[in-house]
Amino acid sequence: FQLEIEDLDYNYFLPLFFDGLSETTFPCEFFARQGIHDMLEHGGNKILPVIPQLIIPIKNALNLRNRRVLITTLKTLQHLVASADMVGEALVPYYPQILPILNMYRHMNDNQNQNEQQQQRKQTNKGIVMK
């Protein structure tokens, strides 16, 4: 960039980078993640007004149901909430759009643990059988 990050138009660039959360190929995926990270680190009070424009790209990324995209999006949401005051509160009206998608993944880890426990009981887990 020839501009400082603080001087960028956050209303244009931040949603553009959030659109890149759906990307799975290098270098697009990298540029999207790095652009989001840099803008959130330096955005301060410019982030809060852009929140409504970020919801659709977040929702689109979560709807892909790609594990890697899901994890990247969740980490990005964590960074977004921590990036400026009141961002978490500003996301509350959009919970009905985001939470149903996340609810599908809520038991993902629980199901994996249950599957491992069943394999252990049935001794179908290759690692346990080898021991």
Automatic annotation (TrEMBL):
<dbReference type="GO" id="GO:0031982">
    <property type="term" value="C:vesicle"/>
</dbReference>
<dbReference type="GO" id="GO:0005829">
    <property type="term" value="C:cytosol"/>
</dbReference>
<dbReference type="GO" id="GO:0030544">
    <property type="term" value="F:Hsp70 protein binding"/>
</dbReference>
<feature type="region of interest" description="Disordered">
    <location>
        <begin position="112"/>
        <end position="131"/>
    </location>
</feature>
<dbReference type="InterPro" id="IPR019399">
    <property type="entry name" value="Parkin_co-regulated_protein"/>
</dbReference>
<protein>
    <submittedName>
        <fullName>PACRG protein</fullName>
    </submittedName>
</protein>
<dbReference type="Pfam" id="PF10274">
    <property type="entry name" value="ParcG"/>
</dbReference>
<dbReference type="GO" id="GO:0051879">
    <property type="term" value="F:Hsp90 protein binding"/>
</dbReference>
<dbReference type="GO" id="GO:0043005">
    <property type="term" value="C:neuron projection"/>
</dbReference>
<dbReference type="InterPro" id="IPR016024">
    <property type="entry name" value="ARM-type_fold"/>
</dbReference>
<feature type="compositionally biased region" description="Low complexity">
    <location>
        <begin position="112"/>
        <end position="122"/>
    </location>
</feature>
